[in-house]
Give the backbone structure.
Amino acid sequence: MEADAGMGETPLDDRGLAYGDGLFETVLVRDGRPQLWEAHLARLAHGCQVLRMPLPPRDALERPLTNPGEGLVVLKLLLTRGDGGRGYAPPEAPVPRLRWQLSPFVPDARRWTRGVRIRHCRLQLGIQPALAGLKHLNRLENVLARSEWSDTHTAEGLLCDSEDRLVEATCMNLFWQREGRLETPRLTRCGVAGTLRAALLECLPIAEVDATPAVLADAEAVWLGNSVQGIWPVTRLDGPGGDMLHRWSIQAVHRRLQATGHASLGYPTRFDD
Amino acid sequence: MEADAGMGETPLDDRGLAYGDGLFETVLVRDGRPQLWEAHLARLAHGCQVLRMPLPPRDALERPLTNPGEGLVVLKLLLTRGDGGRGYAPPEAPVPRLRWQLSPFVPDARRWTRGVRIRHCRLQLGIQPALAGLKHLNRLENVLARSEWSDTHTAEGLLCDSEDRLVEATCMNLFWQREGRLETPRLTRCGVAGTLRAALLECLPIAEVDATPAVLADAEAVWLGNSVQGIWPVTRLDGPGGDMLHRWSIQAVHRRLQATGHASLGYPTRFDD
């Protein structure tokens, strides 16, 4: 199956291209059914409200799902403020441009079962409460952070903000358990509030906290997760140079968070450890 | 004269559209000659180096200038990392995509002669040294800041960083004179290092400083400038709600900085005050 793209091209003065003035969603679609769809729509609607862009009607957002095919597909929705790239001032009546792409997807099941090695990134995220939580198109920080490693052993990189608080990984949210309590970084200053994170916060007593990386040394378990990949137990955390800082063995507690998260995505909820 | 666009459209998985992974330049072109061209090329080259993108050869960057027409035109160059928008990791061998657009331009001469009223913005820029100074495509902060006012009396908005240091205006650099000394914000944490600013720093003893907005209360003169609009004396500074904070009358010192800046752009250097 080839990637399938909706409405192909984008003119030069589209504000998404000119300024990153827009939003996106990447949605796991299983046998034609978008997973966590309400959460994706809610985040997109919230983003439109913050950026003061009209939200396209639901049927327009669901049009790519009319014939996505069997099995697993990732739908990428990309919504920009539309034309008007000749100055930062947004048009008074913007006409948003919706683009989409469907791509075949196979999750990495080994990462579910065996867990992943991750590292701290050197880059620190800028603090910008006005954009915090949104999945907007200004992602150069993520690109720079993801450029910090190229070895295939390292699955993800952890990001702190410029005041050294844990935020997220480059494309996943972060969770840990400390003294029996589940915690995840508060995302009021920067970071992307993932839809799987939202689902987990609804089902489980997970506290949103401000924490420095030091808390991970005390953590009994650490996970990364997003709505496309599912949940990865973290088995090793390295420093930004690749030097090992901590190791964790996979335990029942890892599997419990995975079971809850994976249930909302249709991914396996039991592992033969 | 209509706007003239180079190589029109951009595919959905262009990293400029997907992540704002790219750079741009807006260049004043006078009778076919790009003003401050070396400074624009230098900033673009520096941006490519920081983002680890190949810089297109000079003749490719100068192709839009082969027949730009008479009079004043603004050339917008938009350079993205090219295809590969399916993950933050940049391709190992990116093929940058260069787009351009030529648009007729008429500067606002009244703003040169009479000066402008500006205001403080509420939005504070995130601190991100890894991207500071670059004219990259992640400009949502500028868009949000520029959305803070819509009255036509207000020409620009001043931006501080999240630690309340002056940085710039939404699309111009900031200069002031205090106790006879010319100063401009240091741009090592955020902000765009303008080419006109670079030209002024070369010609004049302007100190790059960390300063809070309080310094403007003591300033004898305040200016905004960029390489397209030239230099505007600031005659009134408002708070974020539009309440007046300071006024300045235009004096010889204003004209002297304008003369230096405008000389590098071919704009008027003498004003009949």
Helices of chain A lie at 15-19, 37-51, 58-62, 109-114, 140-146, 195-203, 214-217, 252-263. Chain A has a mean pLDDT of 94.
